[in-house]
Every structure is written in structure tokens, then in C-alpha cells.
Write a structure and sequence with these properties.
The structure holds 2 protein chains of 2 kinds. Helix content of chain A is 9%, strand content 51%. By secondary structure, chain B is an alpha+beta fold. The chains are: A mainly beta, B alpha+beta.
């Protein structure tokens, strides 16, 4: 019955059938999800095509598109999908405590690049994809602002 | 620019309790902390008829604790080193506001001897132990020596610092019988910082050099010592409350083995691992540890318990613990109120000294952390915020709906506590409470807690400090069932929204859409699923 295509992490998902959504706090997006015998509270946030559903404490980003929006999104992603450089930036303001790579190093996807201490914790920054480290812009002991460029993967 | 806020109008005055609990020990108390613990202390003050003064950095000008107190004093810019850790700024705020006492909460300056000294020198009362006690216990290595001398078992290992001379001398130094793997610790450390696991003696030289630099950077003191790694182990701590007249109450234990990065995620009391015999031993050891220092106020003595039921002293923390509420639920006592009374010189009552824990309590900590990404802290803004209620539930929160999360501080948002007649009922109550809890805007560790309350090891009470590492990792993958359910929720949400258009990509529920939805629900026009 739905005119929407639903996907999670870029893969199409067939929505579960037989569940009723009853709003507990419609303004906040809190609802009870029930199949007649089981029920649980969930949260849904978002608008348009981009939604986040929280189930049992876990946030799940969900894309809900019309056929037309889907075609447009695919075209956009195809044009932006390339093997060009990826800028790695600090997600939180903090202090660079260790740099695990040097310019020119070949790294695998998920490899630890550096460690940034923020909110009293040491967070590892990992490589978004395989490639070569370039334009390393920080050294250990250097404070960084949120969004500051750390290095580039080429 | 004004540096203080005046009291908030006469309407707030009315809800201060007429002091039917007797004369308040202080007229006005300054809270030198933030977040949920500041809120907790402000609540205790209100019940005791004490005026509360919050302190806030620029990042916390609109924080919950800033709003809830009777008055609030700005103490500096966002970085903790210039605000919540600034002794000068806090003493000045206390004097400016006319406070008679300062409660330091936990963390920040709570165990800082220089701060306690400065408070006393300013003619104010420090809600905590004497500065000399903080000084003595701040050196973990010295504390190990005095506790061992008092006949309390300590983790096997060195009683003297381990020093690397860079010439390989560690290869031949006497390690006091420590076997590997071992744990390298900073004498000035605590809370899991400056700790390093050493797998083999050949790694020791390099580990000492690295950990020494880390400890020096973190604590200004690079002194290290080596302990036997106790594994598997449980982390069990004993709550103490003492007055200035020599009375000491031992208020049972808390089980704190659910940890990541040596920091706790869930605590319960009593510990499922502690037999009546071990409980008596732990209480006796805790008394002996407390007797090594001049102690009053609230404190916790932490122990490791090994698989054979042997216990070893870890450290004594002379402050309120994050998890103090667990003990409050099983004993019925208000530890914060008693800290304040004891600071003013009151004696512990017979009711406190004879307190007998009853039932079972569990606390889960709600952190803005992603348990699916190595519990990395997340920044952003809390969206929806719905906490559970009903029988046996307590929530100590430092935030509420639609609040930004300052990145400068610890990401603890709230503590959810449950109390029931026994452990199975408490676990069932916790499961029910988690099902009612909703936090939007940021990922929290709630998904970990949902998982934990269904784990056979947790249900059996058979778990140790490796639980998170061994069984959770980054958590289970999203199942097909969960994906299908999330897809259905999002599909229905969009399908019912009158606006099918993207609104700048912002992941915020649009008021009008939800209101319209509520109206449709109200008139009962429900589409079949």
C-alpha cells in the first residue's frame, strides 16, 4: 500500500507487516509499537526523507523516499561516489594525544589514524577508507576545534 | 558583565520546606559541581531548608543545575580548568554569595587537598574529610603501604615506585613476586586513568616509560607502581559514613563489575557475589582502612574480589560516589543530607549506625556514548526525554529535553535506579523501566543496558569486570527483524506526516506535523497498519 521505498545503510528494507503505531507523545515523536501480543515504546525523529528510529535504545537512521526521490538520491550518490581524497576532520573539540600514522603511509579502512582526547576520554579516529595518508595537519599535544582538518586519505 | 545571578524571585521561596527536620545546619551552601550530582545536592539542600547556590561555567548558563538552585554564580569560561577546577573562582563565588559551606560533589575538586585547605582558610566548611586525609589517600602507593600495615589484604605487588633509568635496569629489579600479566598504575591516579596492562616482563621497560609520561601529563606526577593483574575479578566497594566524633557506619557493599575503560556502567547492592561471610570480612577490612586516616563524611573503600572469594584493597575514595543512590535505596538513608549534617558537626544517629539494608537496588548510568562504537562519547543536543516512573523507580538527571550537551565535560546524562524486594524483581523492574525510557537526539548506552538485562550471566549474577569486553564488544549487529521494524516505524511516520518534503535535512520533529498528527489521533481516524 505504501508509495515509499525504505532503506537502511543504503540497502532496501521491507517494512515489517502487522504492527500498529500509537502515539504516546506525538509532539516528541514517542509511540507504542504493537502487533497485538507484543508491544514496545519507540522514538521517531526526522522529516521528509531522513528519519531516525530509536528501538530499545538504539538509533537507526532510515531513509523513506518516494520513487522519484529515490531516483534523484541514486543519481546524486553516483555522481559523488569516486575514489578521490577524503578529508578526515575532528568530530569533537579536543586534544590530539597520539598520531599513529605518517604522511605517505598506506592504511586500511578502519585503521587507527590518531587519538583525540575529548570529554575526558581518548577516542580513536579511524580511516574512512583504504588509501594513503596525506596533508597530516596535526601533531601530538595539539588542541583541535570541532571540524578542524586532521589529515587526508588519498 | 554581571558575574552573579540574584535569587530567583519570591515564588521559589515558598517551596522551601519549613524546617520540620530541625534547624538547618547551614543557611546557605554552594555546590561546586555540575550536572546530575549538582541537582542531587540542590535537592538535599531544599529538603533541609538550606539555600542552595549553583556554580556554572559559560557552557552551563542554561543547565538544569543552574536553573534549579536558589541562586547561581558564574565561575568562568567553559573549560573545566578555568571554571569547575578553579579553586580561586569557586572560593570567590562562595564568599560573594554568602555561602557558609561548599559541597564538592564527585570528580573535579572533590578529593583535592589544596581545595579543601583553601575552603577552610576562607572560613568556610568543606563538606568532606579533612585536607590531611585527602592528602594521605591521594598517594595510592602510600595508601597501599598503610593499609597493608593495618592487616588488610592488598593486591600483590610493589610497595615502592617502579623507576626506569632508560638503561634496562628494570630487567633485573625485584618485582616482589609479581607475575605477568601485571597492571602498571600511577601513584597519583584514579578512575582508570594512567593504568596500563603489561603482558610480559620484556614489555615492562617501554610500558613504564610510556605510562610515566602519561601520568605526568594527567596528574603532574609520573610515579608508577606494579600490581598483579587479578582476573577474573569483581569490583566490590563498601560504603562508609563517619562523623567528627569517631562514629563510623558501614552501609553494605555495591557490586560495580560492569565496566568499560575501568569506568562503571551499572551498579547493584547487595552484590550477588558476596556471601554473608565475605560481607563481614569486607566490612571489617573497610573499617580498618578507614582507621588508617582521620576520616569523617562519606567514603567508599574499593576491593577486588577474586574467583576464590579472596578480597584485596584497591583504594579509598573520600567523597560521594556516582552510585551512592544504590546504597540510599537499600538503606533508606540520605547520604548527601548526612554528609552536610556531619560537616556541621552533627553526630550520626542511632538509626544510621544500626541501618540494615533491605531489598535489592540496581543503577544504570545513562551516558551520551555510542556503545556500538567502543563507547565513544557523542556530542549534540538531547531531543526527546522521557524518564520512567511508577513503583520503585528513581531518576537522578542532569539534563532534560532539548538541551545541548557541552563537550567539555563528562557525558553522564542521568542515573536510572530501581529498588525491589529481591534481585529477580529488581531486574524485572529495571527491564520495565528501560522499556519506558526514551532519549532522543543522541545515541546513549541505553541499548547496552537493554541487552544486558537479558544476558544469562547477568541474570545469574555471575559476571566479572571483563563482561563488556568479552560479551558485548560493539554489540550485536542490527537484526533483520529490527531493521524491518525500524523501516515500518519510519514509513508510518512519514506516511502520516502532512509534509512529505525535506526540511533542510534537520533531524528534528516538526511541531506542526506532530500536532496535526495528534489531532488526527484525537478524532480517532487511524489508518490500518
Amino acid at each position: 500500500m505504501s508509495a515509499f521505498e525504505v532503506s537502511i545503510d543504503g540497502s532496501p528494507v521491507e517494512p515489517a507487516a502487522g504492527w500498529t503505531l500509537t502515539w504516546l507523545d506525538a509532539a516528541a515523536g514517542i509511540a507504542r509499537l504493537s502487533d497485538g501480543s507484543r508491544s514496545e515504546v519507540c522514538l521517531v525523529e526526522g522529516s521528509g526523507t531522513d528519519w531516525v528510529v530509536t528501538l530499545r535504545g538504539r538509533r537507526i537512521p532510515v531513509a523513506v523516499r518516494t520513487w522519484r526521490e529515490g531516483v534523484l538520491a541514486d543519481a546524486e550518490s553516483a555522481s559523488s561516489h569516486h575514489d578521490g581524497p577524503v578529508e578526515v576532520r575532528a568530530t569533537l573539540p579536543g586534544l590530539v594525544v597520539a598520531v599513529a600514522v605518517q604522511e605517505g603511509d598506506e592504511v586500511a579502512q578502519g585503521a587507527t589514524l590518531l587519538t583525540v582526547e575529548a570529554m575526558k576520554m581518548q577516542n580513536e579516529v579511524r580511516s574512512p577508507r583504504a588509501g594513503r595518508v596525506a596533508a597530516l595537519a596535526v601533531v601530538a599535544g595539539q588542541p583541535v576545534a570541532a571540524g578542524a582538518p586532521l589529515l587526508r586519505i588519498e | 558583565m554581571a558575574t552573579s545571578r540574584s535569587d530567583r524571585g519570591p515564588s521559589l521561596r515558598k517551596d522551601r520546606a519549613p524546617s520540620d527536620a530541625g534547624t538547618p545546619p547551614f543557611r546557605r551552601l554552594l555546590v561546586a559541581n555540575r550536572g546530575e550530582i549538582a541537582v542531587r545536592i540542590i535537592r538535599a539542600c531544599r529538603e533541609m531548608g538550606i539555600e542552595s547556590v549553583a556554580t556554572y561555567s559559560d557552557a552551563d548558563a542554561d543547565a538544569l543545575h543552574t536553573r534549579l538552585a536558589d541562586a547561581a554564580e558564574r565561575i568562568g569560561p567553559a573549560p573545566a580548568s578555568e571554571s569547575y577546577l578553579s579553586i580561586e573562582a569557586i572560593i570567590a563565588a562562595a564568599l560573594r554569595s554568602g555561602a557558609q559551606a561548599i559541597h564538592p560533589g564527585y570528580g573535579f575538586l572533590s578529593e583535592n587537598a589544596a581545595f579543601a585547605t583553601a575552603v577552610e582558610e576562607a572560613g568556610l566548611v568543606f563538606v568532606g574529610p579533612p585536607p590531611a586525609t585527602l592528602e594521605a589517600l591521594g598517594d595510592k602507593l602510600a595508601a597501599r603501604r598503610s593499609v597493608a600495615a593495618a592487616g588488610v589484604p592488598i593486591v600483590p605487588g610493589l610497595l615502592v615506585p617502579l623507576v626506569a633509568d632508560g638503561q634496562g635496569s628494570l630487567a633485573s629489579v625485584d618485582l616482589g613476586g609479581v607475575r605477568f600479566p601485571a597492571l602498571l598504575k600511577a601513584a597519583a591516579g584514579g578512575g582508570g586513568r594512567g593504568m596500563r596492562r603489561v603482558e610480559d616482563r620484556s614489555e615492562l621497560e617501554a610500558a613504564v616509560a610510556g605510562a610515566g609520561r602519561e601520568a605526568l601529563a594527567a596528574f603532574g606526577d609520573g610515579t608508577l607502581y606494579l600490581e598483579q593483574l587479578v582476573a577474573p575479578a569483581r569490583h566490590v566497594e563498601v560504603q562508609l559514613l563517619g562523623d567528627r566524633h569517631g562514629s563510623l557506619a558501614v552501609l553494605g557493599e555495591r557490586e560495580c563489575s560492569v565496566q568499560r575503560r575501568h569506568q562503571k556502567l551499572l551498579e547493584e547492592s547487595p552484590s550477588p557475589a558476596v556471601s554473608p561471610g565475605l560481607r563481614a570480612q569486607l566490612a571489617e577490612s573497610a573499617r580498618r582502612v578507614a582507621a588508617t586516616v582521620a576520616f569523617h563524611s562519606a567514603a567508599t573503600v574499593e576491593f577486588l574480589v577474586d574467583a576464590e572469594g579472596g578480597h584485596y584493597f584497591l583504594e579509598m575514595n573520600t567523597r560521594l560516589q556516582v552510585e551512592h543512590g544504590v546504597t540510599e535505596l537499600v538503606t533508606g538513608l540520605d547520604l548527601v543530607a548526612w554528609q552536610i549534617r556531619v560537616a556541621a558537626g552533627e553526630r550520626l544517629s542511632q538509626a544510621v549506625l544500626a541501618a540494615a539494608p533491605s531489598g535489592h537496588a540496581i543503577e544504570v548510568r545513562i551516558y551520551a556514548e555510542d556503545p556500538h562504537a567502543n563507547f565513544a562519547p557523542v556530542s549534540g543536543r538531547v531531543g526527546a526525554w522521557h524518564m520512567p516512573d511508577g513503583p520503585g523507580i528513581r531518576v537522578d538527571a542532569g539534563v532534560t529535553a532539548q538541551m545541548p550537551l557541552p563537550v567539555e565535560y563528562d557525558p553522564l546524562l542521568a542515573k536510572l535506579l530501581v529498588h525491589a524486594e529481591d534481585r529477580p524483581s529488581a531486574v524485572a523492574r529495571l527491564r520495565r523501566a528501560l522499556a519506558e525510557t526514551v532519549v532522543g537526539g543522541v545515541q546513549t548506552d541505553l541499548s547496552f543496558h537493554h541487552w544486558l538485562v537479558d544476558q544469562p550471566g547477568f541474570l545469574a549474577g555471575a559476571y566479572d569486570t571483563d563482561l563488556v569486553h568479552d560479551l558485548w564488544g560493539d554489540g550485536p549487529r542490527l537484526s533483520d527483524g529490527e531493521r524491518a521494524l525500524a523501516a515500518e516505524v519510519a514509513r508510518q511516520a512519514r506516511g502520516r506526516s502532512p509534509m512529505g518534503l525535506r526540511r533542510g535535512g534537520a533531524l528534528v520533529a516538526t511541531e506542526s506535523a506532530w500536532s496535526a498528527q495528534a489531532r488526527r489521533e484525537a478524532v480517532g481516524r487511524r489508518r490500518p497498519a
